[in-house]
Design goal:
With 132 residues, the chain is α/β, with parallel strands linked by helices. Helix content is 40%, strand content 22%. It has a four-stranded parallel β-sheet, with helices on both faces. It is globular.
């Protein structure tokens, strides 16, 4: 019984050391092949946007784009600058799909212009109870 009790602190110590080692690894940014062009997706976080995202990914693949980052935003978001920064991590992003409410479009366009993005923009309006 005493041996089992001694094992508990040893096991806890091993777990703490392993978890600390896992948490200290810096998250690496995705690597983009400079020879390819990528599509990125800014999508409203609604039940109705899943089909729009699927369609946009399929269309992008048919048009020769690799699938890049997907960033979701909550309906009612007013400041898109941080989201656009996450969306455009590389100059290889040649196409941005925006799937959300048309009411979000002016704020999204303002954030994209501030990021000095020069690639293509495509919009896929999403309607539903949360953004009508």
């Amino acid at each position: 019984m005493f041996r089992r009790l001694l094992l508990i602190p040893v096991i806890i110590n091993i777990l703490v050391v392993n978890l600390a080692a896992c948490g200290s690894q810096p998250q690496q940014a995705p690597q983009y092949d400079p020879a390819k062009k990528y599509a990125a997706f800014l999508v409203a976080n609604t039940a109705y946007s899943a089909d729009a995202l699927k369609s946009a990914k399929e269309k992008s693949t048919r048009d020769g784009y690799e699938i890049g980052p997907v960033v979701y935003y909550d309906p009612g978001t007013k400041d898109f600058e941080a989201l656009v920064t996450k969306l455009l991590p590389s100059k290889q992003i040649a196409l941005v799909w925006v799937s959300g409410s048309l009411l979000d479009t002016p704020n999204i366009q303002k954030a994209i212009a501030a990021a000095q993005y020069k690639g293509l923009l495509r919009y896929m309006p999403v309607t539903g109870p949360s953004n009508q």
